[in-house]
Write a structure and sequence with these properties.
The chain is mostly helical and 273 residues long. The chain has one domain. Helix content is 81%, strand content 0%. Helix 3 runs antiparallel to helix 4 (104-126) and helix 6 runs antiparallel to helix 7 (171-203).
């Protein structure tokens, strides 16, 4: 592994640790928690966009993997735009709730497009082995894991949709609910794709591309934790708000790991050239 790859991995570790520790230290102050999320989100989202764009530029036009990384890069860049919208509201200092702001409308468009692009990119990535002509038999353990992931995704989808559909009222509330629905649909689809991606990462262990696949799979697993944060907080003997804030900090490495995957994939391809 090159020094650049090690530096990229170290950067993600530092981002993740700083986000979790920073949130834990200020968990009793919602304003400071939002600030930690804002700073961490900016750094992680930009890192994610940088890494995925770098990966997309590695492949020639018409290459199957170029399509994969262009879609993932599109999603990552749109997430930067989505974070910028929230950040602009945070620093405007109006004191109003974000979901009472007209900024929910552009954010709806950005979040919906980001989830669509990322999900389609992950679908293509998960089936890249099949596209290359390789056939990998499915084991009973894999089928059970995939079924479990699908069940969790369906439970999240049904539970969140039930909540979102009850919040349609004003135009702003409808836009807020639709944003949540778009995110839930995208995350649910990505959860279903975690087992196939991690399965290929396991089969590629020791190979140059294994690190990129593990990073993508781990990012998906962290998004699963982020989506299940309410369930995770319930049984713990701590203040729910504090636990939710700390668990929500996994969004930072979830964003950054996609960029790391792109950088590791680029590193593997350029090393072979």
């Amino acid at each position: 592994m090159s020094s650049r790859a090690r530096m990229a991995i170290a950067a993600v570790v530092v981002m993740s640790a700083a986000g979790l520790l920073g949130t834990a230290l200020v968990a009793d102050d919602p304003g400071r928690v939002r600030l930690v999320f804002d700073v961490g989100g900016w750094i992680a989202a930009l890192f994610g966009a940088f890494g995925t764009v770098a990966a997309a530029r590695t492949f020639a036009r018409g290459d199957y993997l170029r399509r994969v990384w262009v879609l993932l890069a599109t999603g990552a860049v749109l997430l930067v735009a989505g974070h910028a919208i929230r950040s602009a509201w945070l620093h405007a200092g109006t004191g109003a709730d974000f979901y009472d702001s007209s900024l929910v409308y552009p954010r709806l468009a950005v979040v919906a497009a980001a989830n669509a692009a990322t999900t389609w990119g992950l679908v293509l990535l998960a089936y890249s082995y099949t596209h290359s002509g390789l056939s990998i038999p499915r084991t009973a353990a894999f089928n059970a894991t995939w079924l479990a992931a699908s069940a969790v995704a369906m439970a999240l989808l049904v539970g969140q949709l039930r909540e979102d559909l009850t919040r349609f009222g004003t135009a702003l509330q409808a836009a807020s609910s639709l944003t949540s629905i778009a995110s839930t649909l995208g995350d649910s689809a990505q959860i279903v794709l975690i087992p196939p991606i991690l399965r290929v990462a396991y089969l590629m262990r020791g190979g140059r591309l294994a690190g990129a696949w593990w990073a993508i799979g781990l990012s998906g697993a962290l998004w699963l934790i982020y989506d299940c944060k309410t369930w995770i907080a319930m049984p713990l003997p701590f203040d729910d708000a504090h636990v939710l804030s700390v668990v929500a900090a996994v969004r930072i490495p979830a964003l950054a790991l996609t960029g790391l995957a792109g950088l590791l994939h680029r590193e593997a391809i350029t090393a072979e050239a």
